[in-house]
Amino acid sequence: GEVDLRESHIWELHFSGCEFGSALTFKGATGRISFQWFSKTPSLLDISGMKMQGSDLSLPRFKGSLLAVGTEFEGSLDLSDAETDYLDLSNAIFRKNLTLVRATVKNDCSLAGAVCDGAVDLTGFDAFSGFLDLSNMAIARPEEVRLIRVNRRRASPPLRLFLGSSNIDGARIADVQWNREGGRLRLEDEREVADGRLSPAQASLTYRRLSEPLESSHWYEEADDCLSAAMEMRRRDTSLGWPARLFLLAYRISSFYGSSYWRAATMLVVLVFIVLAPAFGFAGLTYGAYRPDVVAALPQQQQATRGPVRGTNSMSWLVRSYGRGLVHALEIGSLRDSTSFRPVSAAGVILESTARLLVPAQFAALLLALRRRFTRS
Questions:
Q1: CA 321 to CA 334: how far, in whole Å?
Q2: Nearest to residue 175, comparing CAs of 126, 137, 105?
Q3: What is the 3-state secondary structure (H, E, C) of the chain?
Q4: Are 329 and 280 in contact (CB under 8 A)?
Q5: Of 67, 74, 82, which is closest to residue 118 (Cα–Cα)?
Q6: Phi and psi (nearest 5°) for 236?
Q7: 206 in the Ramachandran plot: left (φ > 0), alpha (ψ -120 to 50) or beta?
Q8: What is the structure's pLDDT at 12?
Q9: Which of 20, 24, 79, 328 is the most exposed place for a label (fewest CB within 10 A)?
Q10: Which is it for strands 57-58 and 38-40: parallel, antiparallel or unpaired?
């Protein structure tokens, strides 16, 4: 049956070969306990609020639910190969190491607000619910955090990780089956932003922190996803001025914050061949400088018009106008000072000035995306 030792003061208690039919509770107790092995593990081990004194607590191959909310562990906690239904270590204090190597949790797992003075090893960890809460942890040695081969089993869903303000600078993060939405990695921090419980600035900082260990572990695609997500969070930050948000929106449209060279190349082609070429053609182009007297002195067939000249074929006029516009757009894109054609209208001059900004900027976005994709420090 159930064993209830809550609020107890225990000098030392050792379990070996015990068979528990129900819950084992030490909630709020103080003392030293240890488990050698279980003949049958309790369905629930509740040590919430307990002050675990003395040696390490090892629960290898533990099966059941473990509640250790606010528990202070003076030694290490080892849950290697455990198969738990529910694991709640939120606000716990770990003076030494926390080991969850190859552990599995059927439902949600939370380490929110935990204090870790030693190493945190989640190598081979699996959360079958897909959710892992590591938010707002105080990690003294983030370089000793291991998040490797997480949720990589065949039956495991993508990992929905909530980091919050946890410091993971220098952590080892690799081979994680991440939750992906909208074509990129997505943390649960974004849902918190959408619900108003987390600021976009904090989510942006979290993504930037996550990108660094991914980059150092050579998981470049995931690192790029984090950088793009960080920019997206900044764009959603209403405290940012509208010029900066407008610039970020343009950067998103042009190359998805420098992460997609295919989008950058596509946008460049659309800008030159579909937008500017016909626009220049219909606005009117002629040979020589933009001077009405020069244009008037040219033969009529060389003068730019906004419609076909009487007696000419409309299709040939469209092809000729598009060809002139395409040549002019390409020359502008090559940053040439003198071009083969000049606009003959005020609208054409404004369009040309705008194109001299847009085309080089989009080409630069393409180069940056290519550099980010193929060049790594």
A1: 20
A2: 126
A3: CCEECCCCEEEEEEECCEECCCEEECCCCEEEEEECCEEECCCEEECCCCEECCCCEECCCCEEEEECCCCEECCCEECCCCEEEEEECCCCEECCCEECCCCEECCCEECCCCEECCCEECCCCEECCCEEECCCCEECCHHHEEEECCCCCCCCCCEEEECCCCCCCCCEEECCCECEECCEECCCHHHHHHCCCCCHHHHHHHHHHHHHHHHHCCCHHHHHHHHHHHHHHHHCCCCCCHHHHHHHHHHHHHHCCCCCHHHHHHHHHHHHHHHHHHHHHHHCEEECCCCHHHHHHCCHHHCCCCCCCCCCCHHHHHHHHHHHHHHHHHHHHCCCCCCCEEECCHHHHHHHHHHHHHHHHHHHHHHHHHHHHHCCC
A4: yes
A5: 74
A6: -85, -5
A7: alpha
A8: 75
A9: 20
A10: unpaired
User: Amino acid identity of 68?
Assistant: A
Is the Cβ–Cβ distance between 25 and 5 less than 8 Å?
yes
- What are the tokens at 96? 């030494």
Beta carbons of 15 and 35 less than 8 angstroms apart: yes
Pick the closest to residue 114 from 86, 130, 95 (CA basis).
95
Question: What is the rounded CA–CA span in Å between residue 257 and residue 251?
Answer: 5
Cβ-based burial of 64 (10 A; exposed 0-12, middle 13-18, buried ≥19) = buried
Closest by CA position to 53, among listed 10, 114, 115: 10
Model pTM score: 0.74
Under a CB-based contact definition with an 8 Å cutoff, are residues 236 and 257 in contact? no
Amino acid at 157: P
Query: Which one-letter amino acid corresponds to residue 275?
Result: V
pLDDT along the chain (377 residues), means of 10: 72 72 80 71 85 80 88 91 92 94 92 94 93 94 94 87 91 93 90 90 93 89 88 88 85 79 89 91 69 50 48 72 87 80 84 89 86 65
